[in-house]
Design a protein that fits this description.
Radius of gyration: 22 Å
Order of helices and strands: HHEEEEEEEEEEH
Helix content: 10-25%
Distance between the termini: 62 Å
Largest sheet: 10 strands, antiparallel
Strand content: 25-35%
Oligomer: single chain
Number of domains: 1
Number of strands: 10
Shape: globular
């Protein structure tokens, strides 16, 4: 009996040690994922084309909610995990907080494979900076339209899925959204350089944290391109999720050229 108790104690110690190792690895990945989001924000703030004057205090009064819902879902791409599994994100409703001008309330849905989850959360603006020099688009079509300037918003986001849903968790990270002010000080989604190679907007960098299994996965998405996508996106002018040997296509990217499939309103 005593030998059984000793063996049981050894097994318990081994399990406890394994659990601690798993927690340590999980914590390490969480810190790494957070660092990626922080590095993304710092890189944008350090962009040599951005003025260093902070304009959040002056410009947070504007309503930027339409920036985040501007693009058709067929041009919003995202991945989750190290195997670049496709995730589709739809921000369905974005509303500006009536008391905190830097905060926006979000309702949306995510889809991975055939699993669709709803989520709610916030986008909280941390910085607004102005481009030092205007871009005027192809053939300088915007040059004489009286645009007051192009700007970059940097913000922190947290989107929480319903805990009662399958495979649910929290999206958390940093995002960037670009806009311009016209001659009447009206906010516009910045699509001036849309025809240029590598054009992007509404870039989200962060992680998804599971409620139930303590799994943390890298999760990025954006309009037209995905930020920090490494070896996955090999397109020069346009998004191309093939990798260098097409090994990621099976992870939800098979219909990327099917416009009808890409435009389907899966969130309804």
């Amino acid at each position: 009996m005593s030998e059984f108790i000793i063996n049981l104690g050894h097994q318990f110690t081994a399990m406890k040690r394994l659990s601690l190792i798993c927690l340590f690895l999980l914590f390490g990945f969480f810190v790494f994922a957070q660092k990626e989001a922080t590095d993304f924000k710092n890189k944008q703030l350090g962009n040599k084309y951005l003025a260093q004057i902070e304009l959040k205090g002056q410009l947070a009064k504007y309503d930027f909610s339409r920036l985040f819902t501007n693009s058709d879902n067929s041009v919003i791409y995202g991945f989750i995990g190290n195997n670049y599994q496709r995730i589709r994100i739809k921000l369905i409703r974005v509303t500006k907080d009536s008391l905190s001008p830097d905060t926006y309330h979000i309702y949306g849905k995510s889809m991975v494979k055939n699993n669709i989850d709803g989520f709610k959360g916030t986008i909280k603006i941390s910085n607004i900076r102005k481009l030092k020099d205007m871009m005027y688009g192809a053939d300088e079509e915007y040059k004489n339209k009286g645009i007051k300037g192009e700007y970059v918003i940097l913000a922190d986001y947290t989107f929480s899925e319903n805990k009662g849903q399958n495979h649910s968790g929290v999206f958390k990270g940093v995002c960037e959204s670009d806009f311009y002010l016209d001659k009447n000080s009206k906010v516009h989604y910045d699509d001036i350089e849309m025809n240029a190679d590598g054009y992007t907007n509404n870039q989200f960098v962060g992680q998804w944290i599971s409620y139930n299994s303590n799994i943390i996965k890298k999760c990025n998405w954006g309009d037209y391109r995905i930020p920090d996508s490494g070896q996955f996106d090999i397109g020069a002018g346009d998004f191309s999720p093939h990798g260098y040997d097409n090994k990621y296509l099976k992870n939800g990217w098979q219909n990327i050229d099917d416009q009808k499939a890409e435009s389907a309103k899966w969130w309804e």
